[in-house]
Amino acid sequence: MSSPDSSSGVLVLGGGPAGMAAAFELSRAGKRVTVVEREENVGGLAKTLVIHRPEGTYRTDIGPHRFFSKNRYLYEMIEDLLGERWIAVPRHTRFYVNEKFYFYPVRLRNVIGQLGFIQSFRVVRDFLYEKVRSVLKPRKIASFGDYAISNFGRTLAEFNMINYTEKIWGLPVDQISVDWASQRIAGLSPWATLKKMIWKQGGPKTLVDSFHYPDHGSGLIYERMRERVESAGGIVLTRTEPTALEWKDHRITRVFLKNEEGVKTFEPEAVVSSIPMTHAALLFAPQAPAHVMEAANSLKFRAQVYLFLTVDRDHVTHDNWIYFPNKEIPFGRIAEMKNFSSRMVPDGKTSLFIEFFCFEGDDIWRKSADDLFHLAIQWLEKLKFLKREEVLSFHHFRQPHVYPLYDLTYSDRVSEVITWMDTFENFHAIGRPGRFRYTNQDHSLEMGILAAKNVLAGRRIHDIDAVGSDSEYFEKGYVPHERKP
């Protein structure tokens, strides 16, 4: 194993957005940094995969990662990393419900034309009913389902919120925490949506309309960070993972790392961890208290399986994404990477990235590439996206720790683990898996930057949990000047 200095420096566990942002910020401040990443490439859930074929090179994110944020510092940081390779992309999104396509953001004529008068009337009726009820006899908000119905009315909630949410999580909405609503749809207003549909404006511009994207995929951000870290003297160890975190007096004193070359010990100044909380909690030696271990073992992640198709066609759609809330369709979302950047595919070709939600070990998770392709192509042909003979190749990927599972009791269990971990003055848990919080890419970057500042200060001067904790809709954000693709 490439040997880091075992007596000094900061050890970053996990090379995803949060971990790489922390390493990058620490390197810029002159700290010696070692990043440990289990996979071959950095980027975590935002990395970009590269597939070489005779006709050329295809690139795909593992689930496209558009960039939007309310934080100008992040835009300036990425502009510095990418320069002209940081492009503005118009957003084109649809969802397919009950055999009809709808635009998102919604368009009044499209919605009324597709729903029809009776269903449109029900949407308005149920929404007004809930508004009156909220004054006279407020609904008890105990779950995501309660929140969605109370704020949007039953017809609209069941049309495009409840069904897709249950598909993502694999749970009924009455078993999903209201925290999911506060992160994903809080601040969304039917009135504001209607105003935008009619007048094409209303409130600040949001990245519902456009977003920024690296011309070779979101992974380019993290590869550039890696280059900067290494040029500053830092080390990035891939295909490497921690096996133990020794501690004394609530300080991490030694970390054991393992890869194909063997085992190495590291005596860190500080540890920044973005690996799954459920795994990190089990690495502490001496072992964490029983209640912490029990809480960590009870937390679960929702997984994903992906199918990537290379396609002998110039375009399949003009959408970035299309969402499929109905449960009879086995996949939840498809993306055409060419519509993010033309440099993601060879000239004259395109690709489709297909996402399936699952639990690790279930039927979807266990399917072979051939079986998954057979399952998907039936629907792609039925929906008239493409023909089987147009598919040049298909590629199969799995990710076990994608969505922290927000069931009704997750919060108390997370609090038990985090409260104990945060007693370690030189251990900083960050990121979506590390903090067990559903965060967008920008929030993960912010967590990494703030963790770096805490390390530099020698104490927790920034509250990591304050990142992304406001009640605004997650897709509102500052939009910098546009650079067209």
Give a summary of the structure in a few sentences.
With 485 residues, this protein is an alpha/beta fold.
Strand content: 15-25%
How far apart are the termini? 41 Å
* Number of separate helices: 16
Q: How is the largest sheet built, in terms of strand order?
A: 7-6-16-17-18-15-19
What secondary-structure arrangement, pairings included, does this model have?
Layout lengths: L9 E4 L3 H12 L4 E5 L10 E6 L2 E6 L10 H11 L3 E5 L2 E5 L2 E5 L3 H29 L7 H9 L1 H7 L1 H8 L9 H6 L5 H10 L10 E5 L4 H13 L3 E4 L2 E8 L2 E9 L2 E5 L3 E4 L3 H4 L3 E2 L4 H9 L2 E11 L9 E3 L9 E3 L14 E9 L4 H4 L2 H14 L8 E14 L5 H12 L5 E3 L1 H5 L5 H17 L28
Parallel strand pairs: 1-2, 1-13, 2-9, 6-16, 10-14, 13-20
Antiparallel strand pairs: 3-4, 5-8, 6-7, 10-11, 11-12, 15-18, 15-19, 16-17, 17-18
Structure description:
The chain is an alpha/beta fold and 485 residues long. It folds into 3 domains: 10-44 and 215-299 and 411-466, FAD/NAD(P)-binding domain, CATH 3.50.50; 50-69 and 86-93 and 300-404, Alpha-Beta Complex (Polyamine Oxidase, Chain A, domain 2); 105-199, no CATH class. The chain is built from 16 helices and 20 strands. The strands form 5 sheets. A 7-stranded mixed beta sheet has the order 7-6-16-17-18-15-19. The protein is globular and about 70 Å long. The two termini are 41 Å apart. Residues 201-207 and 471-485 have low confidence and may be disordered.
